Amino acid sequence: DSGVTQTPKHLITATGQRVTLRCSPRSGDLSVYWYQQSLDQGLQFLIQYYNGEERAKGNILERFSAQQFPDLHSELNLSSLELGDSALYFCASSASGRANTEAFFGQGTRLTVV
Amino acid sequence: AQSVTQPDIHITVSEGASLELRCNYSYGATPYLFWYVQSPGQGLQLLLKYFSGDTLVQGIKGFEAEFKRSQSSFNLRKPSVHWSDAAEYFCAVGDSSGAGSYQLTFGKGTKLSVIP
After folding, report:
1. Where are the alpha helices (DSSP H) in chain B?
2. In B, which residues are within 8 Å of A42 by CB distance?
3. CA B108, chain centre distance (Å)
4. What are phi and psi of A7, to 5 degrees?
5. How far is Cα A83 from Cα B82, in angstroms, rounded to an integer?
């Protein structure tokens, strides 16, 4: 158990809908990261938050947004969903936002868009 | 931009045989390198990491990796594979683009199958 909790584990929704994925980081970790894993793109970095502030942005679509709350949990919002958004979404956390930092991953949320 | 290449998509080994998974990276500065393992339906678990110092690093589950700057490689090895090692393995490089910003760039992964 990495200590990173993601809910829900599975989500099935229709095209055009909006969903929210939730992540609780390890106790004490200030940084939260979101990654998308798909068969064609592999593991792609989406976005990083550090202590409530956005710090780094990767290949995140404009239809997607995220935030980190004062209690440090984070939510990833996916809207106007398309079939191609079906993927495994991982949250990870680390104590700091430095490159020599170990990131711990949650079990992921599997999103299926039908 | 940084990149990671794992040349082998799928490797099959017999139980008890040795294993080497290849990883090559492209990064302008001193790389922070990681190997993660993903079992079916599971999240990513860190096997080992290299930040600096000794170029041969030991990890969990009997894995080790060697950093070779001249070859831009960070290959993962295990002397004797167990059936439970069957999983997908990801090499990654950590990159910081500014104060407090950080991301991992992953390779495409190598799927390991183990024959009993």
Report:
1. none
2. 106-109
3. 11
4. -135, 145
5. 38
pLDDT tens, B39-70?
Answer: 988 889 999 999 888 899 999 999 999 999 99
Q: What does the alpha-carbon distance between residue B33 and residue B37 come to, in Å, rounded to a whole number?
A: 14
CA atoms within 13 A on the CB side of B63: 22
Q: What angle do CA A7, A69, A19 make, to 5 degrees?
A: 40
8 Å CB contact of B101 and A104: no
Burial of A5 (0-12, 13-18, 19+ CB in 10 A): middle
d(CA B10, CA A23): 31
Residue where the block lists tokens 């683009």: B97
User: From the centroid of its chain, how far is CA B79?
Assistant: 15
Q: Tell me the chain B residues in contact with residue A9 when contact means C-beta distances shorter than 8 Å.
A: none
Which residues of chain B are within 8 Å of residue A35 when distances are taken between CB atoms? 104
How many CA atoms within 13 Å lie on the side-chain side of B56?
A: 3
Distance CA A88, CA A82 (A): 14
SS3 of residue B70 by DSSP? helix
User: Cα–Cα distance between B82 and A90 in angstroms, integer?
Assistant: 27
- A99 contacts B102? CB cut-off 8 A: yes
- Interval A5-60: pLDDT, tens: 999 999 999 999 999 999 999 999 999 999 999 988 899 999 999 999 999 999 89
